[in-house]
Amino acid sequence: KMAAAAGAAAVAGLWSEVNRCGQNGDFARALKSVNKILQINKDDVTALHCKVVCLIQNGNFKEALGVINTHTKVLTSDVIAFEKAYCEYRLNRIESALKTIQSASQQTDKLKELYGQVLYRLERYDDCLAAYRDLIRNSQDEYEEERKTNLSAVVAAQSTWEKVVPEDLGLREATYELCYNSACALIGQGKLNEAMKKLQKAEELCRQSLSEDSDVTEEDIEAELAIIHGQMAYIMQLQGRTEDALQLYNQIIKLKPTDVGLLAVIANNIITINKDQNVFDSKKKVKLTNAEGVEHKLSKKQLQAIEFNKALLAMYTNQADQCRKLSASLQSQSPEHLLPVLIQAAQLCREKQHAKAVVLLQDFAEQHPASAAEIKLTMAQLKIAQGSVTKACMILRSIEELQHKPGMVSALVTMYSHEEDIDSAIEVFTQAIQWYQQHQARTNNGCCVFQPKSPVHLSLIREAANFKLKHGRKKEAISDLEELWKQNPKDVHTLAQLISAYSLVDPEKAKVLSKHLPSSDTMSLKVDVDVLENSHGATYVRKKAGKLTGDNQQKEQGQGEVKKKKKKKKGKLPKNYDPKVTPDPERWLPMRERSYYRGRKKGKKKDQVGKGTQGSTTTGSSELDASRTASSPPTSPRPGSGAAVSATSNVIPPRHQKPAGAPATKKKQQQKKKKGPKGGW
């Protein structure tokens, strides 16, 4: 009895210790006391429950779950359902946590709160929204603000990932978290300017709330603002302000935030800005997307986008095998998704395997008819890149849902015109116009009621008429123009085109139609000529009346102003021009084409210089004898004395004379000798 009493006293003391440590938040010490109690009584339900709570508080979720699973007979689901589900949730076993919550016999408020978190992680946003609405409606405690924040986060996720137009919850945006979630919802709707204003308000509220705490430093505030700045940079990127976005992204990375999800998203966005440029930087940023725990922080669509960008980066860095591996993995995860197939096709094109790329796309289009239009557009682009424009046109015309669209009609007509296939281009116009004619009728109580032609329909008819006129198909164009004029008889422009077309085919009909043209009086425009002439940029400015005198006044008063004739400049005559001699009528022709041209005379040498033996000259010695001349010229001419030069102009000094006769043949022989054998010695 004494031993039992002592044991009971010891257990009571241990429980007191556990209680005191729990109140002080010292759960490590409390766990030691609980373990001592379990040594005395290993199946004590309260002690086991306390041990699980202490382990959870210390962050040992795996060990806590192990204790729960080991003592299932003692720790039933009624006792430990919340703790078990919470451990599974924190260990990212979300499906298991959901089963544990749903299997609990009693749904406590704590389980409902956890249920909402689990549904959010599973991206079941409709059920999550209903769960939080029920919690807010039936709860009144100090956690109401947190529940409203979670509710706004669900609405933002619906807007972003499911493109659901968010309903107005009537939440007062008094905290920066609520402002941030509201901004995310606006981004999902595409209201970027409004979202930016909300984020600026969230930043202001965040600074105000954190600056009130004296223990919070500026670095702590910047770390808290990192997620808000990240969304601001994302909006800038969507608006095309990539330089500003990139600068803000890099500022956030320099802060080294602890949120791996935020870092992964920012790194991914930088990679999308870099594209095929700055690949080295992109390779570094990819490492941030591979951090541990990222897959539990981001949504499925975010993770999928990151994987897509990894595959594209592998393609840009010429890692063909890695690109194929990643795109194949993505295709196995999402067989209906279009992007993995497009990445594979792009990689094949980079490897110059266009035919394989087309086959790949064609197979996917047959298996997934919903994506056939986008696939066929890509196939057409590949055919154009190969130079097969006609085949590209055939592929485009096979997309039935786009045949009547103005953009498609314009593209086909342009391509056919490039190939000079005018008949096919007109056929495209005809099919599109017929489609609108068939769909302009609507059923009203079993009756078919025809409505006026739509602006798109009329625009197509007009473009078809213009195209036919341009390519000489006047008769076909006339029927289109008549249809347009019938729709709007007051359209003078169409009537003028119709008259112009008929004037080339049926002039009498053109005259009849011309009677419908308005008179010149009704068409006169009320234009202030003085204002028009004095306007900025006028090419002609009338001279002021005060400066007009004499002939100028007569010109102004006359019926019409005669244009001044430009004076033709007199052509320059040649220096040796003789007006008495008739100029050669063939002077404009090249010399070879003139009738009197006989060609150059061969065999006649200009001079007999260089003939004979070396040192001899053909000129007589008497001509070179200076003593026989009337007066010997000076050895060097005086400045300005041209006569001295003319006296000896026909005399060739011996030093400048070339030997005649034999030396010429010697030179030829020397040239022949120089050629020599090609083989060398």
From TrEMBL:
Family membership: Belongs to the SRP72 family.
Q: Which PANTHER family match?
A: SIGNAL RECOGNITION PARTICLE 72 (PTHR14094), SIGNAL RECOGNITION PARTICLE SUBUNIT SRP72 (PTHR14094:SF9)
Query: Which residue ranges have biased composition labelled Low complexity?
Result: 610-644
Ranges annotated as biased composition (Basic residues):
563-573, 665-681
Q: Report keywords, A-Z.
A: Coiled coil, Cytoplasm, Endoplasmic reticulum, Repeat, Ribonucleoprotein, Signal recognition particle, TPR repeat
Gene for this protein?
A: Srp72
Q: What is this protein called?
A: Signal recognition particle subunit SRP72
Question: Which residues does the annotated region (Disordered) include?
Answer: 544-681
Name the GO cellular-component terms: endoplasmic reticulum; signal recognition particle, endoplasmic reticulum targeting
What Gene Ontology biological process does one annotation of this record name? SRP-dependent cotranslational protein targeting to membrane
- SMART domains attached to this UniProt entry: TPR
| Superkingdom as given in the UniProt entry | Eukaryota
InterPro entries for this protein: Signal_recog_part_SRP72_RNA-bd, SRP72, SRP72_TPR-like, TPR-like_helical_dom_sf, TPR_rpt
What residue spans carry the Basic and acidic residues bias annotation?
Answer: 575-596
Q: Which Gene Ontology MF annotations are present?
A: 7S RNA binding; ribosome binding
TPR repeats mapped onto the chain = 226-259
Signal peptide boundaries: none
Q: What is its main location?
A: cytoplasm
Coiled coil located at which positions?
94-149
Where is the protein localized? Cytoplasm; Endoplasmic reticulum
Keyword check for Repeat, yes or no.
yes
Residues of the Signal recognition particle SRP72 subunit RNA-binding domain: 543-599
